[in-house]
Specification:
Layout: H1 2-10, E1 11-13, E2 25-28, E3 35-42, E4 45-49, H2 53-61, E5 69-71, H3 72-76, H4 79-102
Antiparallel strand pairs: 1-5, 2-3, 3-4
Length: about 100
């Protein structure tokens, strides 16, 4: 429980448009060292995180009531890595929205 509280404190809440599905994807930075995962938490709430798989599973099991968040490590990335990450997130949004439209 303490570890989860520590992880939660590391997160910074940021507004992001709703995504869809419970699919998680891994996004690699240009140097293939930073992976970003995205997972559905409830209704239209998702999390984008870096290396916090256990926390994501915890929130998914408990239907956590948080909005999309970036880890503080995202803020520390250099600009090219941020652009790559944002482009990958946009690609994920487009793919999942297309899947929903097809259902």
């Amino acid at each position: 429980m303490t570890a989860l509280k520590l992880h939660i404190m590391v997160f910074k809440q940021v507004v992001f448009s709703p995504l869809s599905t419970t699919i998680k994807e891994v996004f690699m930075s240009k140097n293939n060292t930073c992976d970003f995962q995205i997972g559905r938490l409830d209704g239209e709430k998702y999390v984008i995180m870096q290396n916090f798989q256990s926390m994501a599973e915890f929130w998914k099991r408990n239907n956590g009531g948080i909005t999309v968040q970036y880890t503080l490590s995202f803020q520390k990335l250099d600009m090219p890595d941020k652009v790559i990450c944002m482009a990958q997130m946009q690609r994920f949004c487009e793919k999942t929205l297309l899947r929903e439209d097809g259902e």
